[in-house]
Amino acid sequence: MSTKSKLLELLEKQKGSYLSGEELAQQLDISRTAVWKAMKSLRQEGYQIQAVTNKGYALCQENDILSGEAVRCFLENPEVEIQVFQEISSTSQVMKQKALESRLPHGSFVAANSQIEGRGRKGRSFYSPKGSGLYLSVLLYPGKTVQESLEMTAAAAVAVCKAVRESCGVSLDIKWVNDLYLQGKKVCGILTEAVTDFETGDIEFAVVGIGLNLYEPEEGFPGELRQKAGTILQKGQQVDRNRLAACIVNCLLKEVEKKGIPGEYIAWNIIPGRKIKLHSDFKSRIVLAERISEDGRLVIRNEQGQEEILSATDVSL
Ligand code: BTN
């Protein structure tokens, strides 16, 4: 790890408190000049660092630059591979590529401040502008079969709800199958992609991509998203995205260890009991959503009064 990274980690761990140049130099076993140079370089990268005579250096609380060093400070298992980008094509695309190239630890992840080619379900794009969200793709070796892949999406939905409640104090709703809502608007999308062993039907690895709309984008949401998309935080509210990213990963790794669909996924789902619109390639139909089954599928009552069980379909409220 570079001196700059080690320094950033120390500052992040004590965000808001002053650390003297001498203390930092001693902890890192470098000269005070080297500390000063690394500070200068961090500032040039945009980190808000205060320097006060006789007190030392402090990373400002408002600093919200996403960094691997900062996320690692809050991870329960820091022995994972972390890559953080200010801009990237797609965190899921990059995570998947890395996992194909070499075996990385379970729970490794790629995070970004913005994505140029953010991907959604069914080949759709996911709007990922800079400074307004958190885009994260986590690598899992889940020890599950293809039939159990819904368990990962469900685990991720529950994990994000728990992490958002802990970090932002906001309770989100789950909308079957992979969306999180707040006050009737989508604020998070989840995309689970798995690479399977064709012979055994087991999942070799999966990449769970999570896109959160935290703040209103600078120019607002574009086009038809304006009606559908919302944000987790309102004007004037702020969250430490590094801490939030770590909290999501910590929660996800716990949820995914559990067998089956988490009870919270069913309990926090807003679909049951509602008239919903189902979209397939050629037509839409309005049906009654009855319940989410124990294996995470949606049980509906169709136009003819018959029960149908769906595994993955586009649903709107
Ligand atoms: C959906 O709503 O259809 C799923 C959206 C998933 C978006 C996330 S953002 C992080 C990760 N990288 C991507 O390109 N997509 C997922």
TrEMBL record:
Secretion signal, residue range per the UniProt entry: none
DNA-binding region positions on the chain: 21-40
Residues the record lists as binding biotin: Q115, R119, G120, R121, K186
Record-linked Gene3D superfamilies: Bira Bifunctional Protein, Domain 2, Winged helix-like DNA-binding domain superfamily/Winged helix DNA-binding domain
This enzyme's EC code(s): 6.3.4.15
Record bears the keyword tRNA processing: no
Family indicated by similarity: Belongs to the biotin--protein ligase family.
HAMAP family according to UniProt: Bifunct_BirA
Catalytic activity: biotin + L-lysyl-[protein] + ATP = N(6)-biotinyl-L-lysyl-[protein] + AMP + diphosphate + H(+)
Single GO term (MF): biotin--[biotin carboxyl-carrier protein] ligase activity
Database matches in Pfam families: BPL_LplA_LipB, HTH_11
GO biological process, one term: regulation of DNA-templated transcription
Ranges where the BPL/LPL catalytic domain occurs: 66-260
Keywords assigned: ATP-binding, Biotin, DNA-binding, Ligase, Nucleotide-binding, Repressor, Transcription, Transcription regulation
InterPro entries noted in UniProt: aa-tRNA-synth_II/BPL/LPL, Bifunct_BirA, Biotin_CoA_COase_ligase, BPL_LPL_catalytic, HTH_11, WH-like_DNA-bd_sf, WH_DNA-bd_sf
GO cellular-component term (any): cytoplasm
Function: Acts both as a biotin--[acetyl-CoA-carboxylase] ligase and a repressor.
Domain of life: Bacteria
Protein name according to UniProt: Bifunctional ligase/repressor BirA
NCBIfam families per UniProt: birA_ligase
